[in-house]
Amino acid sequence: MTDIVITESIDEDALKSVLAGFDIHYDPKLFLRHEDLCRAVADVPALIVRNNTQVNAEVLKHAKKLVAIGRLGVGLDNIDMETCKTRGIAVYPATGANTQSVVEYVIGSIFVLLRRAFFATPDVLAGEFPRAKWQGREVTGKRLGIVGFGAIGRSLGASASALGMEVVGYDPYLKAGDPAWSQPWGKVAALDLDTLLATSDVVSLHVPLTAETKDLIDRKALAKMKRGAILVNAARGGVANEKAVAEALRSGRLGGAAFDVFVEEPLSKEKAQVFADCPNLILTPHVGAGTAEANRRVSFMVAEKIRDHLGGK
Ligand code: NAD
């Protein structure tokens, strides 16, 4: 009898060491085959997924004996949490295990987008040497507005502050006096969203995707931002409206943007055309947490949680 179904890639060392002794059905492409997935989960107590597996009501209906789900990452928008709660299915995200990788992705994007010159390779290869064209901006002294001051937001704040950025935040779920606003590296001004948008040189999104955060950064919000500001979305697709951001880049209202996450994932060639001809734009395929180190930490953390929940073997 299978104990654990794993539908997406996991670090093989975690599989062999932590989950040794369990009967495992490991198929890193299973998330692509909905009917096979429904069949595979039918009698298993545990399921391990990343963000591509839609653990929706239908999958859960088939998973009659499911008691625990491990999520190799942190966002839970691909899991029907309501049904899990009702049925008492424990859900274990890899909280904190990929934070540093996302922070480094954002910091790297900010440097590239403010400085711009890293996009000059084609000019230089073509024998041009247009130095004035590639004048950039410094990171030090710029204001970073962090939308969603949770685990990643706070860690990003620490790194940005060490680089000489002024860090401000917007998070309506943290009251003004919350200790989160007083970090060991400094006090963070808790602003309302409009003030954050109007005064930040860089805005970085770190909220979950909810009814409230969908299209949080739409055309209206973009119009409130400083002209030439930078926007980073390494949170969830749809928190910033893709069409509105593309328009703002083309018009010069936004000075640059990095998108790691999209409404449709994987993003099709056709849908990607919404971003065609946008200047100073970085598009990456949901790899904010995509480092060897994060993958290892995430895999071990989730494997240990599932092993403990099943009582070890
Ligand atoms: P977290 O739960 O620690 O923090 C989220 C914060 O957002 C919380 O403080 C919460 O109060 C705040 N928030 C919720 N609704 C809000 C709203 N309407 N306005 C402002 N703030 C709001 O989560 P985290 O671990 O910091 O992750 C943040 C986001 O990053 C999640 O969406 C997660 O899915 C995403 N993520 C992406 C990658 C990637 O590969 N790109 C990797 C890890 C996490």
Number of helices: 12
CATH class of the largest domain: Alpha Beta
What is the molecular shape? globular
Supply the helix-strand structural class: alpha/beta
Kindly estimate the percentage of residues that lie in beta strands according to DSSP: 15-25%
Distance between the termini: 14 Å
Number of folding domains? 2
Placed side by side, the strands forming the largest sheet appear as 10-7-6-11-12-13-14
Total count of strands: 14
CATH topology of the largest domain: Rossmann fold
CATH superfamily label of the largest domain: NAD(P)-binding Rossmann-like Domain
Q: Biggest sheet: strands, sense, closure?
A: 7 strands, parallel
Overview of the molecule:
Helix content is 34%, strand content 17%. The chain contains twelve helices and 14 strands. A seven-stranded parallel β-sheet has the order 10-7-6-11-12-13-14, sandwiched between helices. Strands 2-1-3-4-5 form a five-stranded parallel β-sheet, with helices on both faces. It has a two-stranded antiparallel ribbon with strand order 8-9. α5 crosses α7. It is globular. The chain binds nicotinamide-adenine-dinucleotide. The site of nicotinamide-adenine-dinucleotide has 30 residues, from α7.
